[in-house]
Amino acid sequence: MTKQKEIFTPKDPENNKVCIYVCGVTSYDDSHVGHARTSVIFNVLVRKQCLLLFCWYLSHLGYEVIYVRNMTDIDDKIIDNGYAYEVEGDVYFSVDKISDYGRLSGQKVEDNQLGKRVAIDPRKKNPADFTLWKVAKPSKPSWDRPWSSRRPEWHIECSAMSAHYLTSSFDIHGGGTDLIFPHHENKIAQSSAACSKAKVSYWMHNDHMTKDENMEEERSNSAKAQIAYDVQNRVSKLHNDFECKMSDDLHTPEFLKSGLQNALRFINNTLDMVKKIIKPLQKKPQPSVFQSFDALESKIKELLKILGLLWSPSYLEILESLKEKALKRANIKLDYALQKIEERAEARKHKDYLKADEIR
Ligand SMILES: [Zn+2]
């Protein structure tokens, strides 16, 4: 409630006993790995023993722990105490009856977000009022109440259950941050309406599981490291395969069929993996992945050259090398040559053929 970390002191320090209540997942859609987070976090905090005989944290600190997780139970005191009203069989909690409603979440009754998840019910006295009981539906479980057959709404389950097992006043109440409002706020309201002594000493909320950019970066980096390692392995495999096949009666076709083909297949498969794993994680293409292949490419070229199978350099490469040789012979730099070519073209344009010839 103070929105700060506090030193934990149990309500019953003499017996070193800690009473904890944790709300389970409220799932609106298909289950996903994030739903397990609350269970895992509070299990780490609480669980005494698992199959591996780990000693979990609170037990490790020497506490006797009473840990309750939710299911459904019922209580009528709220309506009897005048905190609730009935409309057409449904029972609503009146938030105006609680002076500090919103203390846990920091939400104000005026600007709360009701109606965002559920359309506002015009029968409510205040739009922030929440349902305690609904008229029973034939297909849903219900309980016979003094007024009629009804089913309890979401928030009341937890209040009833924690009060039943831990009394209305206990040490730690946990759950996901998505439950702070309205669920836990409403739980405080209805628990204090049912029992003036109701009090939770500490609220503990776990955050959602998020897709962490660093995690993705790490995944991408480890994939890159794996590729670099695999390429190195492939280079030495290729080299060994070449020497082995060639030493054994110059088995050139054998080498081309096995070693070389495997190397090419490796490149294809790895590029597929790069497309699937690394590329979607990165906004900009990263040259380092492709640099990993350089060593393998050089090795393949080297072996093909030995076998006389590597085509001579491309025309572009031939022209490049001729150009380099010519510049070297004339002892000039490329920039100077280009400048002279331009000057000659300019001279020809002005019909200054003497100058143009001289430059040539
Ligand atoms: Zn709950």
TrEMBL record:
Its cofactor is Zn(2+). It comes from the Eukaryota. It comes from Kingdonia uniflora. Gene3D superfamilies: HUPs. This is tRNA synthetases class I catalytic domain-containing protein. Keywords: ATP-binding, Ligase, Metal-binding, Nucleotide-binding, Zinc. Transmembrane segments: none annotated. One of its GO terms (cellular component) is cytoplasm. One of its GO terms (biological process) is cysteinyl-tRNA aminoacylation. SUPFAM superfamilies: Anticodon-binding domain of a subclass of class I aminoacyl-tRNA synthetases, Nucleotidylyl transferase. Pfam families: tRNA-synt_1e (PF01406). Residues 77-216 form the tRNA synthetases class I catalytic domain. GO terms for molecular function: ATP binding; cysteine-tRNA ligase activity; metal ion binding.
